[in-house]
């Protein structure tokens, strides 16, 4: 899926960068990029996993090619849909750590332990598990980055989270500014949180924690934290079911 996703992103950015487009031509280029189709597919799959857990009481195995890309995308989104604690600022940081960075396995929480305990992924504790940020974001966010393993999977995840926040404006404690900051730091950062390709590389080969600072330490400073909070937030203990109808999915302008 990496190459089609990268090509889709390339077409989207090219369309956004062309000031000569008429409205009809812009809508045609947007549709042909298929970026919103990727957003819809990711949300639909996450909703399916969440539905199996919440409404049918089934166990769910999410199986990707290597368990480091779309697998993490689906499991992380499913937990945001199901678990209100993942929608807090602190809980969202923990979600990113366990799904995208350290991959410690789904965490059981009060009220959703049975559901999340049944959500598993392929190779959850493999030493090479975790999203390969260095490979996927190797050059830059430029759509013309043509590395064989370049793919904006993490950007797709952030886009899906933005869609959730737009459809449920009171349910996420954090706002768009946090998503933009995470995107920036995934591609170029003064912190070590998104360095390397796996937890093994970070802890054994590069010793990232010993030689760099954590992005979370900076974000959680009181003067910084306020920038990322959603002033409309009100704790919502319910499952949030996003609409994936075409009229409900909008282009994230960032």
Automatic annotation (TrEMBL):
SUPFAM superfamilies: (Phosphotyrosine protein) phosphatases II (SSF52799)
GO biological process, one term: phosphatidylinositol dephosphorylation
Alphabetical list of Pfam families matching this protein: Myotub-related
GO cellular component, one term: cytoplasm
A Gene Ontology molecular function term of the record: protein phosphatase binding
Source taxon at top rank: Eukaryota
Myotubularin phosphatase domain segment(s): 1-254
InterPro entries: Myotubularin, Myotubularin-like_Pase_dom, Prot-tyrosine_phosphatase-like
Positions in coiled-coil regions: none
Record-linked PANTHER family: MYOTUBULARIN PHOSPHATASE DOMAIN-CONTAINING PROTEIN, MYOTUBULARIN-RELATED
Family membership: Belongs to the protein-tyrosine phosphatase family. Non-receptor class myotubularin subfamily.
Protein name listed in UniProt: MTMR9 protein
Organism: Oxylabes madagascariensis
Lineage, top ranks: Eukaryota, Metazoa, Chordata, Craniata, Vertebrata
Gene this chain is encoded by: Mtmr9
């Amino acid at each position: 899926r990496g190459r089609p996703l990268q090509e889709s992103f390339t077409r989207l950015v090219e369309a956004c960068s062309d000031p000569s487009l008429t409205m009809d031509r812009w809508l045609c280029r947007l549709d042909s990029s298929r970026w919103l189709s990727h957003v819809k597919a990711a949300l639909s799959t996450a909703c399916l996993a969440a539905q199996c857990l919440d409404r049918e009481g089934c166990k769910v195995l999410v199986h990707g090619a290597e368990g480091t890309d779309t697998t993490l995308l689906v499991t992380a989104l499913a937990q945001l849909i199901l678990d209100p604690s993942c929608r807090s600022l602190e809980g969202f940081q923990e979600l990113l750590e366990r799904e995208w960075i350290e991959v410690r396995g789904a965490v059981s929480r009060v009220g959703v332990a049975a559901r999340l305990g049944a959500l598993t992924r392929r190779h959850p504790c493999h030493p090479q598990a975790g999203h390969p940020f260095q490979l996927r974001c190797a050059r830059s966010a430029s759509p013309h980055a043509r590395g064989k393993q370049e793919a904006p999977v993490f950007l797709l995840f952030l886009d899906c989270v933005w869609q959730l926040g737009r459809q449920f404006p009171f349910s996420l404690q954090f706002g768009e500014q946090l998503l933009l900051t995470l995107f920036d730091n995934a591609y170029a950062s003064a912190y070590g949180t998104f360095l390397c390709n796996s937890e093994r590389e970070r802890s054994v080969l590069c010793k990232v924690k010993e030689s760099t600072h954590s992005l979370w330490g900076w974000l959680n400073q009181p003067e910084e934290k306020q920038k990322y909070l959603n002033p409309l937030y009100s704790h919502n203990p319910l499952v949030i079911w996003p609409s994936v109808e075409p009229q409900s999915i909008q282009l994230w302008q960032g």
